[in-house]
Write a structure and sequence with these properties.
Layout: E1 6-15, E2 18-23, E3 32-36, H1 40-44, E4 54-60, E5 63-69, E6 75-76, E7 81-82, E8 86-92, H2 102-113, E9 116-122, H3 128-141, E10 144-147, H4 156-165, E11 170-174, H5 181-188, E12 214-219, E13 222-226, H6 274-280, H7 286-299
Parallel strand pairs: 8-9, 8-11, 9-10, 11-13
Antiparallel strand pairs: 1-2, 1-4, 2-3, 4-5, 6-7, 12-13
The structure holds guanosine-5'-triphosphate (GTP), magnesium ion and zinc ion (ZN).
């Protein structure tokens, strides 16, 4: 890249406040610029560059810096990424056990931010029945769901076919530490060499092996990110949404909304609530409704000024 010139790029990873940027402008496409700073002006505006950001890179007196950030389509706090099209919500059937409500909080965050959630149940060989049950539950909601084993290879081709069909997308694998995100990415794309770790023998939990969000280009202009594990405790209570919008973030509630006895029905305890009736009739999964109640409990005290 010539001095005094500007190029477009995408932030692939950040290391200690510096960024690795992949150039996407035609003349230098694929060129990686490593560990460059962002202009101080972002700090004064309280903007932190994120992985996934489409940026302008300038070369001045032989040094590169990020001089502009394009408007974001969306941004997530956890995992910290912008411009996401799809989020693969990765959860293992066992070791570590799936935590109740974790995947649902992520589907809600996806719905709120215009990101398509895809459920991936890992380590299926450890409990095939549970893997089948969970994928079925999410397929009934209307989501794509896959059960896979990076050990036996079961389900890998199906998931790979789906990922291949999403050309041009920016996506990420996320979930708790030890769920097998990095192992699965390596199995799907053997060139990536993502770092993987063991789970702790005693507490059967991951050891936070992946330390930072890293984007990989898997096909032309198609990116997938490996991200560090996080748990339910890491969610901020008010990250989600308002209590009024929450029912709309559960797609399977849609046919019943606005038809309850009370127009302002919260769908938590009222008589004549069609959502509660649908749960009783088995049309809405009890676990999803339990997640609704739990998130409702978290967001109901959100004050107008916090919105
Ligand atoms: N039995 C079994 N173990 C698996 C499978 N996939 C991954 N593992 C194991 O799970 C452990 C954790 O795998 P990682 O890929 O490092 O997990 P991660 O989700 O990337 O974890 P963090 O980077 O800490 O968030 C390793 O010991 C893997 O060998 C699987 O399909 N079956
Ligand atoms: Mg990892
Ligand atoms: Zn209701």
């Amino acid at each position: 890249m010539a001095d005094g010139k500007e190029s477009k790029g995408i932030i692939m990873t950040s290391v200690g406040g510096r960024y690795n940027v992949r150039i996407t402008s035609a003349d230098d496409v694929g060129f990686m610029i490593k560990k460059i700073p962002a202009r101080g002006v972002f700090r004064s505006k309280n903007v932190t560059p994120l992985c996934g950001d489409r940026v302008t890179v300038s070369k001045i007196d032989g040094s590169y810096c990020i001089s502009g950030i394009d408007e974001r389509k969306n941004e997530l706090i956890r995992p910290p990424l912008s411009n996401l099209d799809l989020l693969y919500i990765v959860a293992s059937v066992k070791d570590p056990d799936m935590s109740d409500g974790f995947a649902d909080k992520l589907t809600v965050l996806c719905e709120k931010n215009g990101v398509k959630p895809v459920i991936v149940v890992t380590k299926s060989e450890l409990c095939p029945e549970k893997a089948a049950e969970v994928t079925k539950l999410y397929k009934n909601v209307g989501y794509e769901a896959f059960a896979v084993s990076s050990v036996t290879g079961d389900g890998i081709d199906g998931l790979l076919g789906y990922i291949r069909s999403q050309t041009g997308a920016l996506s990420a694998f996320c979930g708790v530490s030890g769920a097998g995100k990095s192992t699965l990415l390596n199995r799907l794309f053997p060139d990536l060499h993502c770092e993987t770790g063991q789970i702790s023998e005693k507490i059967r939990r991951g050891k936070n092996t992946t330390r930072r969000v890293t984007l990989y280009e898997i096909y032309e202009d198609t990116y997938i990110a490996d991200t560090p594990g996080f748990s339910l405790l890491d969610f901020e209570k008010f990250d989600f949404c308002t209590k009024e919008e929450l029912p709309y973030l559960f797609p399977e509630f849609e046919p019943y909304l606005c038809k309850c006895k009370y127009t302002k029905c919260s769908h938590t305890k009222e008589d004549g609530c069609l959502i509660r009736a649908a749960v009783a009739e088995g049309k809405i999964a009890e676990s999803r409704y339990a997640s609704y109640l739990s998130i409702y409990g978290d967001v109901k005290d959100k004050k107008d000024w916090m919105k």
